[in-house]
Amino acid sequence: MMTEASPGDVPTDAPVATTADDANALPFVAPCRTLGTWEPIGWLRLAWGDFKTAPRQSLTYGAVVVLLGWVLAYIAIHFGGYFELLALVSGFILVAPLLAVGTYSISEQIERGLPPTLRRCLVVGRRAFGNLMVFALILMIVFLVWWRAASAVHIFFPVDMTTPDWTDYVQFLGIGSAVGSIFAVIVFAAAAFSLPMLVDREADSVTAVVTSVNAVLRNKPAMAVWAALIVIAVAPGFALLLLGRERGAGFALVMGLLGITLPLIGHATWHAYRATIDASAWPRNEHPDP
Predict the structure, then answer these.
(1) Cβ atoms within 10 A of the Cβ of 56, count?
(2) 32 - beta bridge partners?
(3) pLDDT in tens, 40-96
(4) Are residues 33 and 10 in contact, defined by beta-carbon separation less than 8 angstroms?
(5) Would you say 81 and 176 are in contact if contact means Cβ atoms under 8 Å apart?
(6) Widest CA span of the chain, in angstroms?
């Protein structure tokens, strides 16, 4: 069932009852606002404000992602080659929403007027562990299917890795991007608002995913702009994969940029959720004292 809040409504945090009868009466999907086409630009402005408010926490989280990426890159190169590295980085986009959960928590703490701490981020992650693992399993399945699809593209459109001519990559990257975009759209629709909702509210993963897909389908122009902004944020970094292929220098630069852009996108995703989804029917998660 598709539901929608009126355009003038904004998410509220009114107290809700938490009895068993009330829990059984919760709606199947949270209502959403109708967004203006260019509202995502405002989310980035708010994200930059969060970044400046908590630069240490945001950059620390980004550094953890960078280190994780370097470890995975070493494994890919050591046991495979450049193609495996390229497929791994392309698939990284599919799991990035889950890696940004900590930045959602940082923005939430700032919104509540709490001093943002990484300890609270860990507590949030532990509390929502079950639902996050369900979502992680879904992303893992999508990632594995994408890996097989990428292998098929490499088989049918082979690339001579010994040539430095970038034009040899056009066909491979074009077909690969077209196939990958299908997986990216699926993940984008499922993750656009679901993970922030799991951080914010005592909701289950199925409700959060259905809510996210519903909101994306009801706001296609705004979501197209938001997806384009995400691509603009990460595309220059991935283009660097064509540099320093033999020593992996391109990948090192890619991950270095993601250490900054991923926290920004994560903060903006939180503000996108707060501006779009009315999840006031679900109890809000409480934070412990630091």
Answers:
(1) 9
(2) 277
(3) 999 999 999 999 999 998 888 888 877 776 776 666 666 665 555 555 555 566 566
(4) yes
(5) no
(6) 66
CA 49 to mean position of chain CA atoms? 19
Distance between CA 15 and CA 36 in Å, rounded?
Answer: 28
Gap between the Cα atoms of 285 and 200, Å rounded: 6
CA-to-CA dists, residue 16 to 25, 201, 253, angstroms = 12, 11, 47
116's tokens: 């943002």
Q: Phi/psi zone of residue 244: left (φ > 0), alpha (ψ -120 to 50 degrees), beta?
A: left
Name 201's bridge partners. 284
Residues 127-169 pLDDT 10s: 766 777 777 777 777 777 766 776 676 666 666 555 555 665 6
Give ∠ CA 176-182-188 in degrees, rounded to 5: 120
- Match 């690339």 to its residue by tokens: 159
**Nearest to residue 89, comparing CAs of 67, 72, 65?**
72
Entry pTM: 0.75
Domain residue spans of the chain: 35-276
